[in-house]
Design brief:
This protein has 133 residues and is mainly α. Helix content is 67%, strand content 0%. It is built from four helices and no strands. The two termini are 31 Å apart. Associates with subunits I, II and III to form cytochrome c oxidase. Its main location: membrane.
């Protein structure tokens, strides 16, 4: 994951510098723009750190090596639930939460409850029922 790590780590200083320049140009009176750029730099650092940490833990992938072959990347890539409806329920709850911020707090409270149910359902999906491990 060398390429991904470098990409995100190099983007972090760029966003920080752009945030400083933006803040200087607006004379630090408009806080949303430069704050968003600083937060983007921080998120880029977090993602880059995660990719670097994961890359050191699992070792180089075939894409990271010059002598890597295509067939080395074949096989199982992970476990993905093919029939899960919980991500859709969670996405609906998150959309409802953002709608609640604009429309009314009562929608937000209902959406937070639905999100908790969706997270619990998604986490424990394979712990009970016909697909229990």
């Amino acid at each position: 994951m060398k390429v991904e790590t470098k990409l995100f780590m190099y983007m972090a200083p760029f966003f920080a510098v752009v945030g400083v320049v933006y803040g200087w140009l607006v004379e630090w009176t408009e806080p949303v723009g430069y704050l968003a750029l600083f937060l983007t730099a921080g998120m880029s650092l977090m993602v880059g750190f995660y990719f670097g940490f994961t890359g050191r833990r699992i070792g180089p992938r075939p894409e990271d090596r010059l002598d890597g072959e295509i067939h080395e990347g074949s096989g199982e890539q992970g476990f993905f639930s093919p029939w899960s409806w919980w991500p859709l329920v969670l996405a609906t709850a998150c959309a409802g939460a953002f709608l609640g911020l604009a429309v009314g707090w009562w929608v937000l409270f209902i959406s937070v409850g639905l999100a908790v149910v969706a997270l619990i359902g998604w986490v424990y999906e394979y712990s009970r029922g016909a697909h229990a491990h």
